[in-house]
Amino acid sequence: MRRAIQKIESVILEGHLHTHVVEGVKEGRDGEVLNELLELYNLQERD
Length: 47
Description:
The protein is mostly helical. The protein is built from 2 helices and no strands. It has helices at about 1-25, 30-45.
């Protein structure tokens, strides 16, 4: 079950990276995007 949840999380994150992150950088919100990515990375490290 956990593996299925991890797969879903991965698909969601990939979609987020391909859309919102790219848009954020293009719109000049680099710092905000970077902070969000670091937060996601830190959450992943806790698992």
